[in-house]
Amino acid sequence: MPEVFRFFGYIFFFYSRELEPLHIHVEGNGGQAKFEFNEEVAHFELRENMNIKAGDLRKIARIIDDNEDIIIRAWNRYFNVND
After folding, report:
1. In this structure, is residue 29 part of a structural domain?
2. How far apart (Å, rounded) are the C-alpha atoms in residues 18 and 47?
């Protein structure tokens, strides 16, 4: 389970056996979410949410937006994908 980074008590990671589509899992404070990268709009979008409050989801989405390049590089490096 490669961890990309941590913010506000949340861990941002992906599972080593999951492949396409590019996505990031977020877990912490008793909840979890999954954001997938939508290639058509070149942006991560919320796909799943379990017990994360709306305010925290907004913070998480902002963190993902601000660090999109780090997430994509980590994914590509781990899964040996050429940029």
Report:
1. yes
2. 15
